[in-house]
Description:
By secondary structure, the protein is of the alpha/beta class. The chain has helices spanning 3-7, 18-28, 34-45, 59-68, 128-132, 140-156, 177-188, 208-217, 231-237, 246-254, 278-288, 317-329; strands spanning 11-12, 69-70, 75-81, 87-92, 98-106, 109-113, 117-119, 134-137, 162-167, 200-204, 221-225, 264-270, 293-299, 333-337. The chain contains twelve helices and 14 strands. α6 (140-156) crosses α7 (177-188) and α11 runs parallel beside α12.
Amino acid sequence: MTDAAETRPKTDLLNLTRSELEAFVVDELAQPRFRADQLWHWLWNRGVADFASMTNLSGALKTRLAERAAIVRPVIDVVRVSTDGTIKLLLALADGEKIETVLIPMAGHYTQCLSTQVGCAMGCTFCSTGELGLTRNMSMGEILGQILVARMHLAQNSLPPLKNLVFMGMGEPLMNLTELMRSLETLGSAEGISIASRRSTVSSVGIPSALKILGESGLAVPAISLHAPTQELRERLMPKAARVPLDELLGCLDRYPLKQRERVTYEYIMLGGVNDSIAHARQLVKLLGQRRCKVNLISYNPPPPQTGKAPYEAPDPEGVLAFENYLRSKHITTFLRRSMGQDIAAACGQLKLLTG
Ligand code: SF4
């Protein structure tokens, strides 16, 4: 080994796409291509975290890998479990930054809510993550590392497996487009994590140029954080997101290349006395009535009292039902999303590194 090789930083294998790993194996390690297949299987399918456990690699190759490469995974700092079974993991990244991921129990499996940024720059007024501001983007290895760590946690605790992914945790995924696209590409790769694109949802406030790229890739289904039926109200609730006028955003989504039976999901967080009246429901029908879509209604979760005064109030449950019924009566497919993990601040809009 040369001095130059000794001083070069090790390559984090979890940060390499399939083709990048192949190039690393062939060019850097001078190994045949099939070694990349073996490594890929160990890293993503088996979730192995050290080279010594890769039993079909030769001793010499394991030594070479240990010199030149690393497997850098987030580390579980704190685990909190809600009374409803929702699990929140506070994860430490290699540079000491912390992020959160949430595992939501469904019938026979879990759905994982993934973070894509440390903090968030969008500053939506109802969201605890937005208060943190943006620290930095997460890398592909960090984004997908959340899945490896969660799978390990579920297996160790004899819990059902992970099936669905929602990119809906800390951060705006489309503001970290490069690493998001690399992550989606890696997710669908054979012999890897292999979670089908129809099982991955990317939630976004809606950035037209990035939505175009996501749509062309066919790698995930979009869910748009709408939260207001008019441009004016959206500007109040989501001032940065609303810089894209509602007309432009909806026009872009009308052109989104959906597969058969797919629809754009619009997320609508119901804020007591702000956007939850029947008048708002009427405006929403006017906006979405003719569109190929479905609407998810989410009741606002005020953050835990120890964090200070909540900016909004929870909506009246009867008002939420009336809102839902009105949309349904106008033939808009509508779901009332049950808020999970509220008692551990793991519900939508509550992720703020409060675990402890
Ligand atoms: S709702 Fe999403 S985009 Fe808005 S501040 Fe929170 S994390 Fe960021």
